[in-house]
Specification:
Elements (H helix, E strand, L loop, with lengths): L3 H35 L1
């Protein structure tokens, strides 16, 4: 039986995961830009 609390927890977790993915992608791109500037 799925409770409302479970659904809210899953959607909140998905939102957090999306934010983490965006931050990771941004940091990877900035690291690549930094590497290109070093070369």
């Amino acid at each position: 039986m799925i409770t409302a609390r479970f659904v809210i927890g899953v959607s909140g977790e998905a939102q957090r995961l999306r934010e983490v993915m965006l931050i990771r992608e941004y940091s990877i791109r900035s690291m690549e830009a930094f590497a290109k500037n070093m070369l």
